[in-house]
Design goal:
two-stranded antiparallel ribbon; 39% helix; 3 helices
Length: 94
């Protein structure tokens, strides 16, 4: 079993925004919608790969669960590389 992402692992790889930064941002700012997480160092505003993961973390937080991602850092980075190679972007039907 591969280890899941840890607090200091980056969720937004474009801007190096870690799980810890995002969780602390949510606790401090109490964002009403997941898109407000972009105010945390620009998370999700680069390639947009992490947007579904940010939304998942926000939902966990709203549900009273400590937010986190189950992927290993290696799998997460590999899936992002595949996303970039595909040429698709969030909300795209390409």
């Amino acid at each position: 079993m591969k280890p899941k992402m840890q607090s200091d692992d980056d969720v937004c790889l474009c801007f190096h925004v870690s799980q810890r930064k995002l969780v602390n941002f949510m606790k401090r700012e109490e964002p009403e919608v997941p898109s407000k997480l972009s105010e945390c160092l620009g998370a999700g505003t680069g390639c947009q790969w992490c947007v579904p993961y940010l939304e998942s973390m926000w939902t966990q937080w709203k549900d009273g669960v400590e937010p986190g991602l189950e992927s290993s850092p290696e799998d997460y980075a590999r899936e992002r590389r595949d996303f970039h190679k595909s040429g698709k972007r969030a909300g795209s039907d390409q």
